[in-house]
Amino acid sequence: MRFTKSIPNMFTLGNLYCGFLAIGFTANGQHKNAAILILIGMMLDSMDGRLARMLDADSALGKELDSLADIVTFGAAPSFLIYYTYFFQFGLLGFVVAGLFPLFGAYRLARFNISSPKSSQHYFIGVPITAAGGILALLTLFGNKIPQIIITVIFTALCFLMVSKIRLPSFKEIPLPKYGTIVTVFLGCLLYVIYTGTYGRQFPYLIYIAAPLYITYVAYRFVKRTHKKNEN
Q1: Strand-pair partners of 116
Q2: pTM for the whole structure
């Protein structure tokens, strides 16, 4: 029973470890590997909260751990990645600008943590750091095909959108991944085919564990919801 209660935290720690590995891959010049690891972290992040509710394992520790993992995987890791792939040419200025992303993300997370639990079930205030970090990771997979100015505009927009007052719909109650991850899965499948064709030997094999687990989880949620409807 105690092990069951710790399962959601294990997924959260897996998310955090993906962020650490992404930073390491970035430092070693394997930028596309780093981007893939951030997307894997996105998968794990979409599962831990739902697993906690399914297993009745919600806890204050889990919520704090989730925020700490998010700031690493979707704040620090994407900012390092975006610097080494696009902003490095600006030297120290580029490094300083890239470092703004986790600052905005941390503020957004702190504001979310003190917001009303009831409101967070129906909408998000500002773009979630998970989605923002995932978008930066996806952009880096396209290499030099996207002009520098577009990357800069998107990066700046995401920083301010995270701390904005814009309300975005939350899909926490549907039997699918939370907001932002649905699109990532479909794009990820497409990018996987493109990516392995060129970088297959360097592909992070953690995806072969995370992806089947993620698909199994989504299928379970779908079957469970369908079963409940049939009973009613």
Answers
A1: none
A2: 0.79
